[in-house]
Each structure stands twice: as structure tokens, then as C-alpha cells.
Design brief:
The chain has 176 residues and is mainly alpha-helical. Helix content is 66%, strand content 3%. The chain contains 7 helices and 2 strands.
């Protein structure tokens, strides 16, 4: 079979050549950060699912409650930067596994707490998450780590500020 017979027929308006102006994938920092993040999350999630039957989002909720017991799902979602539906799914999984308990709080809130089994699960999962940190920091000095973390916090702040401005612009556009 020749190449011409195996090639799909393309519409006349299909662009078949690379564009002149594109992003260099080897030096585009957002892509490199995303690839690193995806690889670390995949590694962590794969290992946690294999060993505990829980994924990275479940771990994130457990970890958040270990740091801040009594958070509501909404508070945990905001703290973690996760979509509320994702957090809710993890909370339901953790409650069903009796790793998290919900209690009645003021004004209809539902504070969450780890159970003893949840605290034990936290301690068992922690080294898997810490391994991701070790991978990132392996070739950095203590000063490099401090500088990197300072830069990342500043970038996150800039991203949040930009998102707020874009949300405000979108709201104003809807009013027009």
C-alpha cells in the first residue's frame, strides 16, 4: 500500500504545514512546568492507588485535614485550589472508607476531621508525596530551594491577581 492510498483525504482549507510563529516546546516554561507537574502527580497517584486504593485528590484532602482539622469541604477546596466537585468526590470516598468524619457545624456547615484510621492513612501516604518534593529538589542547594519557592509563590500571586482582573473584566463586559 502506498502512502497516497493510506493518507486521509483532506479538505482544501486544511492547514498542512507548520505555522511560522509557534512556541518552542523545549523552552516554553509553562509547558515544562505542566509536564513536570503531570509526571509527579501521575507517579504519586499511581503509587497511592496501587498501595491504598486512593488517588492524589484523596491524599490532598487528607493532607489538608491533617494541617487544618475542622475545615468544610468548601474551605478545603479553596485551600487546595481544587474544583469543589473534585473535592466533594474525594470527601465522599474518604467518608465511605471511614477515613474522614463530617460533623454538624454552625449555620449548616459540615466541618471535617480525620478519623484515627485517616490519621494513620496520612502517615502511610506522606512518604509517597514527599518523594515528589525530593525529586524536584534533588539538584538544588538550600539557597536555590528558598529562591525557587519564593519565585513560585510570587508567580502564584501574579496568577491570582491576573485571574481577579480577568474576572472583573468579564463581569463588566456582561453589564455592557
Amino acid at each position: 500500500m502506498s502512502d497516497s492510498t493510506s493518507r486521509p483525504s483532506l479538505p482544501d482549507h486544511a492547514v498542512t504545514e507548520p505555522l511560522e510563529t509557534t512556541i518552542d516546546p523545549e523552552s516554553f516554561t509553562p509547558r515544562l512546568l505542566a509536564l513536570l507537574s503531570n509526571a509527579l502527580v501521575w507517579r504519586e497517584s499511581h503509587e497511592m492507588r496501587r498501595r491504598f486504593g486512593l488517588g492524589t485528590n484523596d491524599w490532598r484532602v487528607i493532607s489538608a485535614l491533617a494541617m487544618r482539622p475542622g475545615q468544610s469541604a468548601t474551605e478545603a477546596s479553596e485551600f487546595l485550589g481544587l474544583n469543589k466537585a473534585v473535592t466533594s468526590k474525594s470527601v465522599n470516598t474518604l467518608v465511605a472508607r471511614e477515613l474522614v468524619v463530617l460533623v454538624d457545624g454552625p449555620r449548616g456547615s459540615r466541618p471535617m476531621y480525620l478519623t484515627p484510621a485517616g490519621a494513620e492513612m496520612h502517615d502511610e501516604m506522606l512518604p509517597i508525596s514527599v518523594r515528589g518534593q525530593e525529586i524536584i529538589l534533588a539538584d538544588l542547594t538550600e539557597d536555590d530551594v528558598e529562591a525557587l519557592n519564593r519565585l513560585l509563590r510570587r508567580m502564584l500571586e501574579h496568577t491570582r491577581e491576573l485571574q481577579m482582573l480577568e474576572n472583573e473584566a468579564a463581569a463588566l463586559a456582561q453589564l455592557s
